[in-house]
Amino acid sequence: xxxxxxxxxxxxxxxxxxxxxxxxxxxxxxxxxxxxxxxxxxxxxxxxxxxxxxxxxxxxxxxxxxxxxxxxxxxxxxxxxxxxxxxxxxxxxxxxxxxxxxxxxxxxxxxxxxxxxxxxxxxxxxxxxxxxxxxxxxxxxxxxxxxxxxxxxxxxxxxxxxxxxxxxxxxxxxxxxxxxxxxxxxxxxxxxxxxxxxxxxxxxxxxxxxxxxxxxxxxxxxxxxxxxxxxxxxxxxxxxxxxxxxxxxxxxxxxxxxxxxxxxxxxxxxxxxxxxxxxxxxxxxxxxxxxxxxxxxxxxxxxxxxxxxxxxxxxxxxxxxxxxxxxxxxxxxxxxxxxxxxxxxxxxxxxxxx
Length: 354
Description:
23% of the residues lie in helices and 31% in strands. The chain contains ten helices and 17 strands. It has helices at residues 39-43, 97-103, 114-124, 137-146, 156-159, 182-190, 204-208, 228-237, 248-256, 343-352, and strands spanning 4-9, 14-19, 25-33, 51-55, 79-81, 107-110, 127-132, 164-166, 172-177, 194-199, 214-217, 243-246, 260-277, 283-295, 304-309, 315-320, 325-328. The chain has a ten-stranded mixed sheet with strand order 8-10-9-11-12-17-16-15-13-14, sandwiched between helices. Helix 8 (228-237) crosses helix 9. The chain is globular, with a radius of gyration of 20 Å. 52% of the residues are buried. The mean pLDDT is 96.
């Protein structure tokens, strides 16, 4: 008989499940993704640090796992919730999904009514939650309600990697690592950059000492307004270097130029998000993973909105042309089928030579 588990949200919803990996208790912000693929990439994406990830797709893990699909060395989601978890080898590799979760000590459950949970989070917003194979519902709820929220916390210092160099030729780009995905680094290198990746918290003077040609701001977890050290560095270097930001990097650039960010009710997470380019009306199908959005009711002088969401009208891209800076909320390195947004890496390289 397989071990049972429970899923509890901070407002008291209780759902039953079955454990398919590590036993124990995991706490975090409860969120969901609509992506049908990319499960290994999602769980190893540092942007999910502190978040329990629910997969809305009816089955997850049907094409195996492999090392080339990892966005970092370790899983970052405290727990994974699924309706059904596959465990066969496939195009991604010979190790089944459940076996991979076991090997990486991830708390993971299946046979959960994920449709009900996703609808609950859509109606009431992302909230704290927990998964446990050992506690009662009342015990787990008490733990959840004592768990800190993500708001106001700089999580970038908890997930960044060491300083490192990637690529051997092309313009030298300093990338501030706030939880940078491997595929983003690869996208920049493939576009012709030599990357000097430095951890969140690196000062502007230390960045200048590397003699960069441009600055990149990475993705990462948590509240963008709390990453004050990076925002300060961006303000100091804005106009001095070309700047490109993705996801959290987009939000930090926005903060640096005088815009604000606000938490979305349940965020944008999935591989089917349509984004409209303002200058020509073209629609790109994008991958997204964020819980906060840039607010642009009033634009500071010199700041332009370049992309908007066709789901809710939120800001998906900004530019500061006079200071050679731009950013997007979505992930151009990801490939949900179309490669609509990969041009942004080559566009960045072009801006460096201007």
